[in-house]
Amino acid sequence: MLNSLISIHGNNPGSLNTVLGEVSNVFGQVYRSILSSPNGVFIFLIALPNKSGTLARLSSMLAGLGLNLILTYAYTINEELAMALLIYEAKEGYFQKAIEELRKGGAVVREAYEVKAINKINRSTP
Hints:
Layout: H1 15-36, E1 41-49, H2 54-63, E2 69-76, E3 81-89, H3 95-104, E4 108-115
Antiparallel strand pairs: 1-3, 1-4, 2-3
């Protein structure tokens, strides 16, 4: 038999439910972002140094290309490494440029996708 023990520290242990609920909302937001962006989205899963300001610097580099950040989800792996899911509004001809900028900024691009919804079904029509 496997036993688990979870210890929660903080001002309000009930707020953990709120945090976990917000994390689960990320996946719904990814889907809505894809459907609502007329040009599609760029999705990047990156590994980056776990240092203060690194993600902000990378985001600024892509903003310099004129890319609009829609969603960020970042988490720490250990003292030296963090992961981030970045979703940007797509801009024609900028997918590879964005990947190059992320790499120049010290990120390891683990996954990269250019996603566009090409057919949408109107649910109100039978």
